[in-house]
Amino acid sequence: MGHDAPFLGRGWTFPPVFNAADASLSMVAGVENIAQSLNLLLATLQGSRALLPDFGSNLNQFVFRRSDAQTLEELAEAARFILLHGEPRIVVEDVRSQASADGSLMQLVIAYRVTQTNTRHNHVYPFASLEGSNLAPPPKAGIV
Questions:
Q1: Do the beta carbons of residue 99 and residue 129 sit within 8 Å?
Q2: What is the pLDDT of residues 69-86, one digit of tens each?
Q3: Which residue has the higher pLDDT, 15 or 43?
Q4: Among 54, 107, 114, 137, whose Cα sits 20 to 30 Å from the Cα of 88?
């Protein structure tokens, strides 16, 4: 069995892409379909889909928080819960979050196993952090 086995799923690429030659919609299958599904699940604001109100995540609550150890752990736990309930084709083995040296970018490193094939994969989800404490301080009065 290859990684693109039909039981792993097939769907539109995300974002959707049309082929110029025949105006068909580009499709993705197998493990790549799962990876794109993880991105879509984590990037979609929970409640924004009328017919699937429970689909998506609430990770937007972490955008303006300080990139400290507590926030990183809370982000990883929130992502782990979302993946556990939102992607039935995988078993999440580990979710870690890490911040760049300047704290401007957090990313999730997701280790998972595809249940149907018992193969392990890693996925990195970039999560931007626009922390307010990274802004330059206001100029002192009288100094231009």
A1: yes
A2: 898 999 999 999 999 999
A3: 43
A4: 107
108 close to 75: Cβ distance less than 8 angstroms: yes
Closest CA to 87 of 22, 11, 2, 1: 11
**Rounded Cα gap, residues 47 and 40, in angstroms:** 14
**3-state secondary structure (DSSP) of residue 39:** helix
Q: 139: burial class by Cβ within 10 Å (0-12, 13-18, 19+)?
A: exposed
Give Cα 69 distance to the centre of its chain: 19
Helices 69-86, 30-43: crossing angle, 10 deg rounding: 120
Q: What is the pLDDT of residue 4?
A: 53
Instruction: Give the pLDDT band (50/70/90) at residue 1.
Output: very low
